[in-house]
Every structure is written in structure tokens, then in C-alpha cells.
Amino acid sequence: MKNRRQELILQAVAQGDIATQEQLLAYLRQQGMAATQATVSRDIRQLRLRKVAKRGGAVYEVAQEPQEDPGAKYLNMLQNAIEGVDGAGNTVVVRCATGMAQSACVAIDAMPPEGVVGSLAGEDTIFLLCRSEECMKAVQDEIRGWMG
User: Fold this and answer.
1) Which of 77, 96, 118, 138 is within CB 3.0–4.6 Å of 38 for a Cys-Cys bond?
2) pLDDT digits over 81-128, tens only?
3) Left if phi > 0, otherwise alpha if psi is -120 to 50, otherwise beta: which for 25?
4) Which of the four CATH numbers 3.10.310.10, 3.40.50.970, 3.40.50.300, 3.30.1360.40 does domain 72-146 have?
């Protein structure tokens, strides 16, 4: 499913007129593929798409030169630090190993999931404030993906 979705995203980008994530979502829906904005955002990062100026605005394209993934250096630490994820309302609660929450929060802040408004960390718990309950669920899914 992920591979097919990403293939469709690359097809849309190859056409040269995709300027927004909403346009990508609409294209995926036209192709019979359901996805959330958070999923498309994650796919954009994984596919290393970037926006470039074209006549009439900026559009997505596949980066030609290798780009360093800014989140790569944090992923291993997050996999070791995060022990669980839960949520209520529009707040995600991330449980970490004792003493690891602040470091994990720095990593999350460096590559924030789409829709996170802010974060707060203690010794073993991180609170992530999301824009909506729907966004909270997408953020939970993304963080669960980081857990391995």
C-alpha cells in the first residue's frame, strides 16, 4: 500500500504541476488511494521531494542530488527512548524511558509531525499539543512508526 501510494505521488510530481499537499491528496483520491495529510507529508520527506520555483509558482520535484535526512540522526535514539504512545483530545502523550523524555522531545521538535503546535517534556513523559483530534491520531501513528 505504501509503495503504491508513493509510486502514485512520484507519477503526480513527474507531471510537474503539483504545488500543494492538498493537490497530492486529490490526485491520490482520483486514483482510488485514500491517505491523510500527515501520511502525504511523511511520504514527501521519505521520497525527498522539494519545492522548486517554476513559472507561476513553486511545485514539487524529486531532488536530484542526495540530501541528508535531518531526522536520521534522531531515529535510533527515539526507538530506544519511546516506550509507548497514547492520546486524549488533541494531546499526544509519549512515554519514555526514565530520563530520556527531554532528549526525545528535542528529536521530535527537530522533525515535528505535521500539526504539532508545541511540546513539553518531563523526565519520562512528553506532551504534544496538536491542532485537532484527527491530527492527534495521525501524530500517534507517526510516532508509533518511529518505535520500529
Assistant:
1) 138
2) 999 999 999 999 999 999 999 999 999 998 888 999 999 999 999 999
3) alpha
4) 3.30.1360.40
Would you state the cell numbers that stand for residue 113, as one nine-digit string?
509531525
Sequence-ordered strand ranges (E) for 14-71: 49-54, 57-62
67 band by pLDDT with thresholds 50, 70 and 90: low
Report which of 40, 34, 38 is spatially closest to residue 6, judged by C-alpha positions: 40
Candidates 143, 54, 63; CA nearest to 101 is: 143
DSSP 71: T
Q: Tell me which fold the domain 2-62 belongs to.
A: Arc Repressor Mutant, subunit A (1.10.10)
pLDDT for 110: 86
Per-domain residue ranges for the chain? 2-62, 72-146
How far apart CA 79 and CA 74 sit, in angstroms, is 9
